[in-house]
Design goal:
Blueprint: E1 9-13, H1 17-29, E2 33-37, H2 40-49, E3 54-57, E4 60-61, E5 64-65, H3 66-76, E6 80-85, H4 90-98, E7 103-106, H5 111-128, E8 135-138, E9 143-145, E10 151-153, H6 156-167, E11 173-174, H7 175-181, H8 190-208, E12 214-217, E13 221-224, E14 228-230
Parallel strand pairs: 1-2, 1-3, 3-6, 6-7, 8-14
Antiparallel strand pairs: 4-5, 8-9, 9-10, 11-13, 12-13
């Protein structure tokens, strides 16, 4: 049986509270993990806590534009985007699809149609995932490999830090848990953890040419915001 953490995760970005709650409730009943965000800022906070598999996105938001967020998601996140908005003109539909939305629905759509569209997009994305470049980590040699195939060897503290994040990629690991696991006590303070991450970023960028995808949720912890494969199959 699937647990909540194993369910496909959807963030509903909608500023109208009643509609947002209805959508979240219906998606949960339909077998998904779902949360609601009333603004772009709230979406960013929630997505840092757990990376979504799909974003159900309105256009008119109090602190941003859904078209711009769709464009950002398509450029930086491996998740589906379904636009759900009251703006149903042909021009708006074409703009949404050009911005990277996988589907475009108007708000009078039946809940069953919305769920069916989400299911179709997720199924299509699942079929594409095997060819997506992955980060890889070898816990035996402490090597972290970027999607371009270049790898760096980590120190003991860096290895513990990365290994903890990779236990639940896309989800936040608390600072306190990381601090308790580190072999060097002086690295366990907030400043020590931030210094450790800064050093890791520099090492990975210098060795692989890639930015290590670790997000900081200030006051809470860190998460690895990319797909990863663990094992010794490093080149």
């Amino acid at each position: 049986m699937k647990t909540t953490q194993n369910l496909e995760h959807i963030v509903v970005v909608e500023d109208e509270p009643t509609l947002r709650e209805d959508l979240v409730e219906y998606l949960e009943v339909s077998g998904y993990s779902a949360v609601g965000a009333g603004s772009v800022a709230e979406y960013r906070r929630l997505s840092a806590l757990r990376r979504p598999d799909l974003v159900l996105l309105d256009i008119n938001l109090p602190d941003g534009d859904g078209f711009a967020l769709a464009r950002e998601l398509r450029g930086s996140a491996a998740c589906g985007v379904v636009m759900l908005t009251s703006r149903g003109t042909l021009e708006d539909r074409l703009t949404g699809l050009d911005c990277g939305a996988d589907a475009y629905l108007v708000k009078h759509a039946d809940l069953r149609e919305i769920e069916a569209t989400i299911r179709s997009v997720l199924r299509r994305l699942a079929g594409q995932q095997p060819s997506e470049p992955l980060w890889r980590y070898d816990p035996l040699s402490w090597q972290l490999q970027a999607p371009n195939g270049r790898a760096v060897k980590l120190t003991a503290s860096e290895a513990v830090f990365v290994a903890l994040l990779l236990e639940t990629p896309g989800q936040v690991v608390a600072r306190e848990r990381i601090a308790a696991a580190l072999p060097r006590p002086k690295e366990s303070s907030d400043r020590g953890l931030d210094t450790l991450l800064k050093r890791l970023r520099k090492k990975v960028e210098a060795g692989t040419g890639s930015d290590v995808p670790v997000n900081v949720v200030y006051g809470v912890g860190y998460c690895f915001a990319a797909r990863v494969s663990a094992g010794p199959a490093l080149r």
